[in-house]
Amino acid sequence: MTPDSSRRRLLQTMLAASGSMVLPSLHAAPTAVPLLTRPIPSSGEQVPVIGLGSWITFNVGRDPQARAECANVMHQFFAGGGRMIDSSPMYGSAQDVIGEALQAIKPPRLFSADKVWISGGARGPSQIETSRKLWRVPRFDLLQVHNLLSWEEHLKTLQAMKKEGRLRYVGITTSEGRRHGEIEKIMASQAIDFVQVSYNALDRDVEQRILPLARERRIGVIVNRPFRQGDLTQALAGKPLPGWAAEIGCTTWAQALLKFIVSHPAVTCAIPATSSVAHVRENLLAGTGRMPDEALRKRIAQDAERLA
Amino acid sequence: MSEWWTYSLSDFLMFSQRSYYRLIALYNEALWPAHLLALAVGLVVIVCVARPRPHTRRIALLALALAWAWIGWAYHLDRYADINTGAPWFALAFGVQALLLGLLAARPHGAAPARMQRQLALGLIGLAVVAYPLLALGSGGGWGQAEVFGIAPDPTAIATLGMLLACRAHLIAWLIPLAWCAVSGATLMELRVAHAWLLPTFAILAIAASLLYRRGSQARKHG
Fold first, then answer.
1. What is the tens place of the pLDDT at every residue in B164-214?
2. What whole-number distance in Å separates Cα of residue A273 and Cα of residue A279?
3. Closest residue to A148, CB basis, from B3, B16, B26
């Protein structure tokens, strides 16, 4: 099968999966309420506060139906003003699923964020090149050292790529509160543009040192696992939204939880992962309208703790 | 590799329950009607264990060796590797187990199993061949997601434990099937599959029966 026919087939399946006759154009007028953006501290470049993660949700193997559903999620994400998509070589087929969809959708403004996750610095460049080919992009916007694996060696590679113009931003990642001490040391000693951490209304450890340090060192913050891999939204499902939700334009707990995250002044964006078109739309709405102030953020965390 | 201690099992679970069962469904779709042949081979293994003779033992072990080799290649390497980066290692382990079973088949026949041991072995193999595919119906997945002996790894590992029990195999031959029961059981638990407990339970049952029998035969020797 040629790439063109494969692309055509994916587009056809996307149409079938969307249940509509016409996919909205990505170049059409933006949605009524624009997605809020935040500047990347090291460059000032604006990025939307809601991104798209791919952990678990986009690892669907060769299943054509599931691939079309993922492509549809990406299409809705870009149509709603989203830009940043994050993945990793650790996520199985997710990179290829993203690449296939990107080829079909051709988004006007993609911010590609991937990771290097391999033991030993010498194997980093070939893994990065494999990832780039899977994404089908000329270069990545951001590459991060995944979970600090061999970080000293990989950071050297990424910094060299940035210097040569083959990469725009460099970062490091962790998840679920792992190795925060080491993350802090790297943030304090290395010239990095982004740090990616887990943060949500219940897991707020990063508020103590990492988020203040990010502001101090002008490092962008990407937040993963905003819903604790769905456990948090599931625990809150069916629990009535408190009165404050209407004040910030939230109709679901997911939106309130996302607004809690992206309203932190150190956070650049959150990257909720989903394979549902309805959820991606809902998530994007959390990046619009009024954001909670510090007092309301505290109430959101308290209520989430009490009800979850 | 000091970093590995920071990972938990859930960090390596890179796919959803839906993706896992869709993979099985697509794999089944590609192989149908080979399932009928696999089922027939499973029934042959049951008959061979029910009538223990040197040649029936050899036939059953060779059938299992073929099943492990097939699953290593067709399932782990060709399919599961799409969503699980550890699958090529599983394929290698399945290949090694196929060799071990082949070597066992080539060895001279040992003592016949005790009655209790043979009955438990038959029970395990019977459950793996006949009952395991029905789990998909019970969980609402339909026939498309049925895990069939000789095609899917879990029922094949259970049947193999039964066969190893029946032929009183050396400990080495148990290691990979037991490890697979642990790995697959843990994966199903992380995926929150209702019958995740089955594989570890069968593994514990088979080990207990084997140890009991070994202790009993040692006591008889010394007595």
1. 999 888 889 999 999 999 999 999 999 999 999 999 999 999 999 888 877
2. 9
3. B3
Cβ-defined contact of B23 to A61 (cutoff 8 Å): yes
Mean pLDDT per block of 10 residues along chain A (308 residues) reads 53 51 44 84 97 97 96 97 96 97 96 96 96 98 94 96 97 87 95 96 95 97 94 91 93 95 97 96 95 96 93
**Three-state SS sequence of A184-205:** HHHHHHCCCCEEEEECCCCCCH
> In the prediction, which pLDDT does B13 show?
85
Domain boundaries, chain A: 36-307
Instruction: Tell me if chain B has a CB within 8 Å of the CB of A63.
Output: yes
The beta-carbon neighbor of A149 closest among B3, B10, B22 is: B3
What pairs with residue A50 in β-bridges? A270
Q: Which residue ranges make up each domain of chain B?
A: 14-222
ipTM of the complex: 0.86
Q: What burial class does residue B28 get, using C-beta atoms within 10 Å of its C-beta: 0-12 exposed, 13-18 middle, 19+ buried?
A: buried
Whole-prediction pTM: 0.88
Region of B10 on the Ramachandran plot (φ > 0 left; ψ -120 to 50 alpha; else beta): alpha
* CB burial string B169-185: b at 16+ within 10 A, e below: beeebbebbbebbebbb
Q: pLDDT (tens digit, 9 = 90+) per residue, B136-155?
A: 988 888 899 999 999 999 99
Residue of B nearest to A117 (CA): B3
Residue A200 near residue A301 (C-beta atoms within 8 A): no
Q: Is the preceding omega at residue B33 within 30 degrees of 0, hence cis?
A: yes
Output the CA–CA distances (angstroms, integers) from residue B180 to A175, B72, B193, in the order listed.
28, 12, 17
Residue pair B195/B139 in contact (Cβ under 8 Å)? The answer is yes
Residues 6+ apart with CB under 8 A from A234: none
In angstroms, what CA-CA distances link A109 with A85, A224, B21, B115? 11, 21, 35, 71
Q: What's the topology of domain A36-307?
A: TIM Barrel (3.20.20)
